[in-house]
Amino acid sequence: MNVAVVGTGYVGLVAGACLAETGNRVVCVDIDREKVEALRRGEIPIYEPGLEELVKRNVEAGRLSFTTDLASAVKPARVAFIAVGTPPDEDGSADLQHVLAVARDIGRAMEKETVVVTKSTVPVGTAQRVREAVEAETAVPVHVCSNPEFLKEGAAVDDFMKPDRVVVGVDHPAAEEALRELYAPFLRTGNALMVMDIPSAEITKYAANAMLATRISFMNAIAGLCERTGADVDKVRQGIGSDARIGSAFLFPGAGYGGSCFPKDVKALIRTSRELGAPSAILEAVEAVNEAQKQLLLSRVVRRFGGDLSGRTFAVWGLAFKPNTDDMREAPSRVTIEGLLERGAKVVAHDPEAIHEARRVFGDRIAYSKREYDSLDGADALIIHTEWLPYRRPDFAEMKSRMAQPILFDGRNLYAPAMMAGHGFEYYSIGRPV
Ligand code: UGA
């Protein structure tokens, strides 16, 4: 099948490469000329395991190509995906200007019946607006479809190749038929293609992310309770997670959730609920708990060292919002580091993949080290923000010998408190007895 994918961000690029892998002819479109040139050379702008090889292989096989010319990609396509960004507006709602501009461009380019699919996360009613935008530019029949993406950064290729489910919102059999054909190779293990009406598909995406964010904020609230009662949130997590109705995934407390999805999607759903005259107390609480949680490590540091941190040095391990990505969007590490800098501290950071992103965010306001242990020289404390694998079993003796004082603030509960006491560390984690 001929497929056009507009937007080569992480959703568009993964979808395009995976659809090419199953034999389709996919043309990915982006307005950024430099990015397109780089992609043609096989250079991937993001760190995503497995993506580079996938792109290279499919480009070489002639199934995957990149262009800035949207019309040339859309003309032969039976299905055109819109996978451009929907950054939050100032009021928290999703900014649809790019989605609708692409819809108009598709309308101008189309020469035959085309299925236009929204893959970007868009509020309820967007598919209808996309239809209107396309139809305003052409008399050729268009079928719109909402096909939300459930990829996790760091596991995106795997998630696309082996999805738990594929959700497709349609209002015309032609759209359903095209999407069934396209996704059949990914659903061979019997995982469902769920066909539903368009508004339900649009809400499903937000509801999934909001539900996951709710579990995290809920566990962060429980962690706070554990700290005040001497309970251990790890035990509580296992205790409740073994109930099949609850399940054990996504119950890890931490320094707040970050990334390009949860914060943006929860905010957008809050905004939509307000606009519809039905403000959501639960979503507002999820967001408020998370904002507070992002301050937690900083407030612990301040409680331990006082408000004036000048002359102090802090090592930070992990800058990305989670492991296996270089993405620092809405990363809780940013809140901690900004707070440390405001109070006059010196910060030395390590991250296996996100240092180039960190340089963009902090420039030379902080120092960077290539090896995690080098960041510890003379540090008053270490703050851990991301559970990268190499941090899980470090050499505590080396850490201690390099630090000015063996103090560790752990935002991911990587180590057992008793073990840390044994190693002679003053150790603070989330929701567990000190
Ligand atoms: C999330 C969803 O998990 C995907 O299903 C969805 O497709 C994606 O958003 C999207 O909308 O595009 P992602 O943002 O890549 O994926 O990251 P997650 O692995 O979900 O982690 C999000 C945040 O939650 C991270 O900051 C992580 O540290 C935090 N988290 C996760 C916790 O604090 N505790 C947990 O138990 C799990």
Written account of the structure:
The protein has 17 helices and 14 strands. The protein has helices spanning 10-21, 33-40, 51-60, 70-74, 97-109, 126-135, 156-161, 173-183, 198-229, 233-241, 262-275, 281-293, 296-305, 332-342, 355-362, 396-402, 417-422; strands spanning 2-6, 25-29, 64-67, 79-82, 114-118, 142-146, 165-170, 192-196, 313-317, 346-350, 367-368, 381-384, 407-410, 426-428. Helix 1 crosses helix 3. The protein is globular. It binds uridine-5'-diphosphate-glucuronic acid. Keywords: NAD, Oxidoreductase. Pfam families: UDPG_MGDP_dh, UDPG_MGDP_dh_C, UDPG_MGDP_dh_N. Residues 315-417 form the UDP-glucose/GDP-mannose dehydrogenase C-terminal domain.
Q: What is the name of the CATH architecture of the largest domain? A: 3-Layer(aba) Sandwich
**What fraction, in percent, of the residue positions are helical?**
40-55%
Strand order of the largest sheet: 3-2-1-4-5-6-7-8
Please report the number of helical segments: 17
Largest sheet: 8 strands, mixed
